[in-house]
Specification:
268 residues, alpha/beta, Rossmann fold, five-stranded parallel sheet, 10 helices, 5 strands, binds adenosine monophosphate, binds magnesium ion
Length: 268
Amino acid sequence: MDRYRIPPDTTVDLAAFDPGDTAGLEEKEAKERVAALNRRLEGLQELLYAEGKHRVLVVLQATDTGGKDGVIRHVFDGVNPQGVKVASFGRPTEKALAHDYLWRVHPHTPGSGEMVIFNRSHYEDVLVVRVHGLVPEGVWSRRYAQINAWERLLAEEGTTILKFFLHISPEEQAERLAARRDDPAKRWKFSRGDLEERGRWSAYRAAYEEVLSRTSTPWAPWYVVPADRKWFRNLVVATTLVDALESLHMAYPDPGEDLTAVLIPPAG
Ligand code: AMP
Ligand code: MG
C-alpha cells in the first residue's frame, strides 16, 4: 500500500494515478480482507483508548461523490462507536469566518486515546476557497506552509496523522451523480451544487495536485486512494490505517501490581 503514499516534496501529476486501480485484486477477496481489517481495527481502537497515550487523526478529502461517507461506514464497521468521532466541515459560519481558518478545526483534533475522522477539513481552505476565489491568492498561497506547521505541532504533541485523497474519475462521478438522481434512496444526496462543481473539475484537480505536492510531509503524509472501485478504496484506507496503528506498538497499561490473587468480595 506504500505506493499510494506521496513522498515529501514530490510534484504530483494525478494523471499518473489510475482511479480504477485494483492492484489485480478481486472484489470478493478485497471484501474479506476488509472484514478482517475491521476486526483488527476494533482491537487497535480499544488498545488506543486503554493506553491513552497516542492521538489519531484521519483526514478524508475527495471530489463530490468520492466516497468519504462510504469509507467512514465500511472501514470503521464494527469499531466501538464510543471510540471514534467524526468531525464534518461544511461552509464556515460567520463566526468562523471572523477568525483564522484553523480556528474552527483545532477544537476537533483528537485528545489522548482518541481517534477522529475529518470529513473534509482545513484543506477546503486551499481547495474550494481557491477554486472559487473566496480569498485572494496572496492569502491562500501562504496556507500550505501554515498547514504544514500546524500539522507538525499536532504530530510533535503525539498525534498520528493520515490523510487520504479519494481519487475518482470524471466518468465514475457521472455514474454516481446519475445514481443519486435516479435512485429514490440516494436522491436526498443529490445536489445541483455538485453539478456546478463538476464543471470546475480541472480547477479542482490542479488545486488537489498542489495540496498533494506541498503538504505531504513526514509527519502528515497524503495517500492517493484509487476510489472508482469502492471495495478497493476501502481496502487501501483500512490497510493503511491498521498498519499505522500497529506500528505504534501499543500495549495495555500495566496495573502496577499483581491482580491475579485479588478476591472479588461478596456484594453488600
Ligand atoms: P457536504 O460535504 O456535501 O456536506 O458539503 C459541504 C460543503 O461545504 C462543500 O460544498 C464544501 O466545499 C463546503 N466547504 C467546506 N469547507 C469550506 C470552506 N472552508 N469554505 C467554503 N466552503 C467550504
Ligand atoms: Mg456534497
